[in-house]
Every structure is written in structure tokens, then in C-alpha cells.
Amino acid sequence: MFVAITRAVSPALASCELTYLDRSPIDVDRARAQHRAYEQALVAAGGRVQQLETSAEMPDSVFVEDIAVVFPELAVVTRPGAESRHGEVAAVAAALAPFRRLYDIQAPGTMDGGDVLVAGRRVVVGVSTRTNEAAVAQLRRILGPFGYAVCATKVTGCLHLKSAVTALDDATLLVNRDWIEPAAFIGFTLVDVDPAEPSAANALRLPDRIVFPSAFPRTARRIAARGLRVVTVDADELAKAEGAVTCCSLIVDTEL
């Protein structure tokens, strides 16, 4: 059993922060429909969705993953790299508090959860336009006593580390090698995205399945070929805001 903390799509989604994509029209109603279907996929996987409210003052808030990183023993509340997102933090922290002991990233550190890849006891943090070395050092101090090894890697070619690499299991990563530094991932089995689908490295790992964007069928087949159950969802409208399937939820294991 798990709880999936989500946040509603803001009416101001079209005013979201953009770093790598050119701004294009976003159909908010369609984005909301895709988000509802995404939440339904989480429920079908055995989760309980806890949706937080949003507002026009928080255009990026549907991408709730950036506001915290959840571990079995604790949760780390981030300090987002875009100042416009600082107002999102309090509600997410309050939602997580019943489930985990909370730790915070403090100034001058900045961190987006989308830059933090957790695979077993290994944590790889992408240093990006949103996450800095000061935050990596803080995360290392927080997680060290719990037995996690934290390393940093540079993010190039995309917004967040998890645009380039996500975990299919504790030992296997889905990657776009053009956007990662391979030395940071020694010891993992790497599954390459299809060359025709460079943006396909973001997959949401759940206990018994992988939730994956329907826009990338070739890479979906590569994942399924490894014996993993793949459930696809439409996420192309949310992708216009530089979002993906991991971005839209915080998965909290409640059976620990």
C-alpha cells in the first residue's frame, strides 16, 4: 500500500517556468484530464491519492515531486531552484509530516526533487539550473547517518536529472546516455531509451508496475522486454510544461 501525494493542475499552468523548451500553448482542461487519468492509474496500482489544492499563484505546483524527496526513514523537503515555487513548500511538508520525519534543505542550497535519483541506498543528485552543490552537501549530511551514499553529477541537455535517468528497480536504470555522465552510474544495469525517443527516460516505478508516457511506445517495449509490467498514460500536455510522470506525485510507502 502506498499514498500518492499529488497536486491539482493550476489554472495558470501556461505561465509555468521553462528552461529547455520553447513556450507553446497549453490546454489546461486537457492537462487536467491527463492528470486525472494519471491519478486513476495510481489508484489502480493499489495507491491512495491525496490531492493538494493549488492556485493561480503556483503555476508549476502540479509537479509536486520537486518539493520533496521521500525515503523509507525520512523525507527531505527541498528549497526549489525557481523562486516562484517557494510558496508550494508548506502544504507539501504538511502532507508528508504524518508519514515521515522531515528534514529541510536550507539557503544557500537549492534543490528540485526531480534532480534526485534514489536506487536502493545509492542517491545520485543532478547539479542543474535548479539544484546546487550546497544542497548536495546538505543532503549528504542528512542521509549519511541512514546509510545512504550520495554523489553528484552534472545535468546537461535537459531540465532535471530524472529527465535523463530513472530507476526501473534498485539495480536497473532507464537512461538517455547523451544526457548523463556515465561515471556516476557505474554498477547499475543501463537500459537505453530508443534513439528516436530521446525524452523517454522518465518512468515512474511502483511496486508492481512502471507507469510510462504513451508518447514513447518504442522505449515502452524495451522496458516490457525486461519482464516489467508497463502501464501507459497520456502526458503530452503536461510535457509542454517540462513535466513527466515522476514529477506529478510523491510516492510514500505506508507499509514500512
Task: Describe it.
A hairpin with a 2-residue loop joins strand 12 and strand 13. With 256 residues, this protein is an alpha/beta fold. The model has no long low-confidence stretch (mean pLDDT 96). Strands 2-1-15 form a 3-stranded mixed beta sheet, sandwiched between helices. Strands 3-4-5 form a 3-stranded mixed beta sheet, covered by helices on one side. Strands 6-7-8 form a 3-stranded mixed beta sheet, covered by helices on one side. The protein contains 5 helices and 15 strands.
Side by side, the strands of the main sheet go: 2-1-15
Structural class of the helices, strands and pairings? alpha/beta
Order of helices and strands: EHEEEHEEEHEEEEEEHEHE
Radius of gyration: 17 Å
Task: Give the proportion of residues in helices.
Answer: 10-25%
What would the average pLDDT be, to the nearest integer?
A: 96
Shape: globular
Number of strand elements: 15
Taken as a percent bin, the fraction of beta residues is: 25-35%
Spans of at least 5 consecutive residues whose pLDDT stays below 50 are none
What is the count of DSSP helices, taking H or I runs of 4+ residues?
5
Largest sheet: 3 strands, mixed
Distance between the termini: 10 Å
Characteristics of this structure?
three-stranded mixed beta sheet; 256 residues; alpha/beta; globular; 19% helix
